[in-house]
Design a protein that fits this description.
The protein is of the alpha/beta class and 484 residues long. The chain folds into 2 domains: 84-404, Rossmann fold (3-Layer(aba) Sandwich); 416-483, no CATH class. Helix content is 24%, strand content 22%. An 11-stranded mixed β-sheet has the order 4-3-6-5-7-8-9-12-17-13-14, with helices on both faces. A 3-stranded antiparallel β-sheet has the order 20-19-22, with no helix packed on it. A two-stranded antiparallel sheet has the order 1-2. α5 (138-150) runs parallel beside α8 and α6 packs across α7. The longest helix is centred in the middle third of the chain and has 35 residues, at 302-336. It starts with 7 loop residues before the first helix and ends with a strand.
Length: 484
Amino acid sequence: MRRLHLTDRHLRVMLWCILLGLQPAFGGILDPFNWARSDRIEVNIPWLPFENETRCYDDLGCLNITRSWYHLIHRPFNVFPLPRVVINTRFILYTKKNPTDGQLLNVNVNKTIVKSNFNPQKLTKMIIHGFIDTPLSNWVSEMKDELVKAGDFNVVVVDWAGGSLPLYTQATANTRLVGLEVAHFINTLQKEHGLNPLDVHIIGHSLGAHTAGYAGERIQGLGRITGLDPAEPYFQGMPTHVRLDPSDAQFVDVIHTDGKSIFLLDFVFMAGYGMSQPVGHLDFYPNNGKEQPGCDLTEGPLVPLTLVKQGLEEASRVLVACNHVRAIKLFTESINGKCPYIGHQCPSYQHFLAGKCFHCGHGCAIMGFHADSSPGLITNKDNETENEVYPSEEHDTIGAKYYLSTGKEQPFCQRHYKVSIQLANPKGAESWVQGFLKVTLLSDRGVIRGMDLTPSNYVKLEHGTSYTIVVTHPMDLGGKVRKV
């Protein structure tokens, strides 16, 4: 049997991670051969099951915990969900007829469906919140309002607040049962009321994204899942049945905004809340998918201003999870916004900023609500509905990363401009000269002044070379720049 040799420092870090419920992104360093997978461990460790453990939940179906749900680093603990009555999953309907007063739907009580404004012939959008969140959160209401405004949809908010509270380990387990509840809800509406699963689009944030994945596993032909910064701890690096993956729906699009990991060698490990690995058909990484502009508290008095403008809840989000919730804000803005979020397929964000993937010949996609109209996706015309979209065989997007840059405040959507400069090489040039570069662009549509070409302040420019950078601005010059 292979043994995993860890230093005292590594053991201290792992202990902190377990206590804090964090998932180390350095798993590949400590465990390069994936020896920590529980199905490769032959010693008797108390929390690892050696036989399948199964629990059934009435008409919802059954859940089991096998060795494949464990990993010494990525997912060291697993428990079963809390009872149904405790989690108390509820489904609240909003439509254009009742945009503010939700109607409670219970598929086991037929009259709650028949007497509601639910119409199975219309598209259905479902919102699933995440950890330490509720349907009363500001963002849920804002997203719901934008969806109601966008079209004549059935907008269903999934309330699982009874199971989203700490401990995080328990909340991750509860998502599996909530996934069963969502699947039962949709499957019953299909069987008894004629709902087509292809017409259903589930939007989940954090743990809600994986919840949508669990539901999709049990819904034949689910149309779409949008994962908004899917939770990283206990999911990243795990098998597909443990997390959101492309097989969970006909189309899975994901926005990553908090995938950064920081390792403090002598004390504790801190990780981003969101996944960094691609898990959908289209995976978008705005601003490299790690740190979002406007979320650095050292940039200015962001929290006090937020506290005044949007209240205590939003201020706490800025303090604790600004990067993590940015995916929500980007998606919400994309629903009715006129500016399209164009993501460029590229090997890295650095390549993207250097203009190496600027043209859509490398592959482009639309991030957010309209992702299903991206180039490279085709519509199945053979079905009765034209809502089924998926990547074409000629352009397999699974595993690819799409990069773009956004602003630090609303409107977040920006236009991308590629600027190339040929630097002169005069005889008397001195290499020690330092400075900054700005550019002004003029077109028939307007003027962009003072666009910063050296935003990181440490760009080294050499005489006689060319310098290319992709910069952003909210204004659209229509591609017709007359003067620089």
